[in-house]
Write a structure and sequence with these properties.
Blueprint: H1 2-21, H2 23-40, H3 49-79, H4 85-113, H5 116-128, H6 130-148
Helix pairs in contact: 1-2, 2-3, 2-6, 3-4
């Protein structure tokens, strides 16, 4: 039982690492939080349980892709200190997997959430509730700070392959 509990702790630590040190994961996370907030805090969008499940699956694919991409990049950085064509290919294809998942997720979102009446209702809600509009704007600014903030310690210890940003 103790080993099982530790495995969950290690998995949580991996997720936290990715949120803290990977900007793209923070972007995915913030978009997901806003999307679910608009879906569940307001009653403007009409979705079936199956449609909500499809959105959950799409989000999961993106998060899993980003976590796997981070694992691939970290492993390559561990074993390869100099530029290596094959290391670049591995990193680029892992990043491409995340991109494919993200594009799929956006397509699912458009297919299921393109509900003009819901967007009109949201617009009316914020037009009539200025305090909530201000809160939304403040949350967007804070989200941008969260996304763009560079962590202070861990990244300087990680070596990247030549040519990588």
């Amino acid at each position: 039982m103790k080993a099982l509990a530790k495995s969950f702790i290690y998995a949580w630590q991996g997720f936290r690492y990715c949120i803290k040190y990977e900007r793209n994961m923070r972007i995915h996370f913030v978009i997901m939080v806003y999307m679910y907030s608009f879906l569940f805090a307001y009653d403007f969008f009409e979705l079936t349980r199956v449609e909500i499940s499809i959105i959950f699956i799409a989000n999961t694919i993106v998060f899993m892709g980003e976590l796997i991409n981070t694992a691939v990049e970290s492993t390559i950085n561990l074993v390869e200190k100099r530029y290596n064509k094959f290391a670049k290919i591995a990193k680029d294809t892992a990043a491409a997997a995340v991109l494919v998942g993200a594009v799929f997720s956006v397509a699912v979102g458009i297919a299921l959430l393109w509900q003009p009446a819901a967007f009109r209702a949201l617009f009316e809600y914020y037009k009539n509730n200025i305090l909530m509009l201000v809160a939304l704007i403040v949350s967007i600014v804070l989200s941008c700070v969260f996304i763009l903030a560079e962590p202070k310690s861990e990244k300087k210890h990680i070596t990247k392959t030549k040519g990588e940003k």
